[in-house]
Design a protein that fits this description.
The chain is α/β, with parallel strands linked by helices. It has helices at 39-56, 69-81, 101-104, 125-128, 175-178, 189-200, 246-257, 308-319, and strands at 14-15, 23-29, 61-66, 89-93, 107-111, 116-119, 151-152, 164-165, 170-174, 204-208, 225-229, 232-236, 268-272, 279-280, 283-284, 293-294, 298-303, 324-329, 345-348. The strands form six sheets. The protein has a four-stranded mixed β-sheet, with helices on one face. It starts with 13 loop residues before the first strand and ends with a strand.
């Protein structure tokens, strides 16, 4: 039975595994919001989801949320037509506003005995910017019994895209997002670090300062810097000094260079190039290769038809030698102001 714990976990008991650790499943929510995805974009968005399913399903389960039975039938018809192997597909009915399950979905943790639990953080639609999205806060309420593992319910606003962990106690995040008064106005930096320690097993929090132009999340870390192993960080870096992302990404790079490594090790910092100015009708989009997703057998990588697509793929291939790098065009997806990492959530094995 799903149960809500009435006490706080201790940092020595539970820890959030890194994304590259073995998954039981990836969680997705099928797109249907026609305000985010109008007709001229919608078929392209569904194509992206089909490509993701094709890449992920051979290596792990995919728990796919469909808005209703009609949408489930539509999805099953498309999967059959595309001849996608669906034995690992687990479709569940759950009314959602939109696809951003990274931010409103469960964050899973494990203890030293390998027992799994999950955290139900509060979701307030990125600081209350989109009131119509706040209903997604209730998709994973413990009472829905959607997840058959114990649940912790921290009374704190936290989006999954705002954190990245190395599984060894270190968490990357940003000041403009987690310290923003539109999330937890009564929480200090120390308070937030205490919550990350208590619920995710984090002993060191690294705070970056800058976010991407066009990012309405106030600066999610999954567009900026990502762990690829316990000691290696890929950091988005803009090489064009005239680009508006140049200075904040340079500042982040310098900050990472001064972060102490726990123990006697050292950080390996790798610059990940940027895909240039991706925009629609002159509106800058928060496009970044750092928004990749690590599956069991494949790494899903957003591409934008830029010469740096190949460079970024080569860097990912070097660090994920046992996984296929699957390039997925995200020019259409990024119009919703998020990419592949934003629409996925991993469940550890």
């Amino acid at each position: 039975m799903n149960q809500a714990f009435d006490h706080n976990p201790h940092e020595s008991e539970y820890r959030m595994p890194p994304e590259w650790s073995r998954h039981e499943a990836t969680w997705l929510a099928w797109p249907h919001n026609r305000e985010t995805w109008p007709e001229n974009h919608f078929s392209g968005i569904e194509e992206i989801y089909l490509r993701m399913l094709e890449a992920l399903l051979p290596g792990e389960k995919v728990r796919l949320l469909c808005h209703d039975d009609e949408e489930r039938e539509h999805v099953e018809t498309m999967i059959s037509a595309y001849r996608i192997r669906s034995a690992n597909l687990d479709i569940r009915i759950a009314p959602t506003v939109d696809v951003w399950i990274r931010d409103y979905g469960p964050i899973f943790v494990k203890n030293g005995d390998g027992e799994k639990a999950w955290c139900k953080w509060r979701f307030n639609a990125w600081g209350g910017k989109y009131p119509e999205f706040i209903a997604d806060n209730h998709v994973f309420e413990p009472a829905t019994k959607m997840i058959d593992h114990p649940c912790f319910s921290p009374e704190m606003v936290l989006e999954g895209g705002s954190i990245d962990v190395n599984g060894a106690g270190v968490c990357l995040t940003t000041e403009p997002c987690l310290l923003n008064a539109n999330r937890n106005p009564l929480f200090s930096r120390k308070d937030i670090e205490s919550y990350l320690e208590k619920y995710l097993g984090v002993s060191q929090t690294v705070w970056l300062r800058g976010g991407l132009a066009g990012d309405d999340t106030d600066g999610h870390i999954d567009n900026l810097a990502r762990f690829v192993n316990a000691d290696t960080i890929l950091a988005a870096f803009e090489e064009d000094a005239s680009d508006e992302n140049y200075e904040p990404l340079r500042s982040n790079w310098e900050k990472l260079g001064n972060v102490p490594h726990p123990g006697n090790g050292k950080w390996h910092l790798i610059k990940l190039p940027m895909p240039g100015n991706v925009n629609e009708h002159g509106m800058r989009k928060p496009a970044s290769y750092a928004n990749f997703y690590i599956g069991n057998q494949a790494v899903l990588m957003p591409v934008y038809g830029h010469p740096n697509d190949r460079r970024a793929a080569s860097i990912l291939k070097e660090h994920f030698a046992g996984r296929e790098i699957v390039a997925i065009p995200c020019d259409v997806l990024i119009n919703g102001l998020g990419a592949l990492h934003c629409i996925t959530q991993q469940e550890p094995a």
